[in-house]
């Protein structure tokens, strides 16, 4: 039988994987993937707690987090494509060369 603890452990593991990806970032695309993993970890936790308490509030918050994540990806990937066209690389070291 899968309990709330199993879901929360899975959520915690996913969040740590995403956090390690953000900390070790070398590539902007991997940074986006890592933040998506972290947001999905929060969604798993919210949905599990919501189901455990028989309340839809956590699932509604998870829905809004998915909407925010989708908009983040749309804007972020657009900027990433523009950056790649200008510099030919998506490494974070190239961001330090920005001139404004």
Key terms:
mainly alpha, single chain, Helix Hairpins, 100 residues, 3 helices
Strand/helix succession = HHH
Q: What count of helical segments does DSSP give?
A: 3
Oligomer: single chain
Shape: elongated
Distance between the termini: 57 Å
Classification by helices and strands:
mainly alpha
User: What is the percentage of strand-forming residues?
Assistant: under 5%
Residue share in helices?
over 70%
Instruction: Give the CATH topology.
Output: Helix Hairpins
Radius of gyration: 17 Å
Poorly predicted spans: none
Number of distinct beta strands: 0
Q: Could you give a short account of the major beta sheet?
A: none
Average per-residue pLDDT, rounded, comes to 89
Number of domains: 1
> What is the CATH top level name?
Mainly Alpha
CATH-level-2 architecture:
Orthogonal Bundle
Explain this structure.
It is a single chain. The chain is mainly α and 100 residues long. The protein has a single domain (4-90), classed as Helix Hairpins. It contains three helices and no strands. The chain has helices at 4-23, 28-52, 57-87. α1 runs antiparallel to α2. The longest helix has 31 residues, at 57-87. The radius of gyration is 17 Å and the shape is elongated. The protein starts with a helix and ends in a 13-residue tail after the last helix. The model has no long low-confidence stretch (mean pLDDT 89).
Short description:
The protein contains three helices and no strands. By secondary structure, the protein is an all-alpha fold.
Give the helices and strands, then pairings:
Elements: H1 4-23, H2 28-52, H3 57-87
Helix pairs in contact: 1-2, 2-3
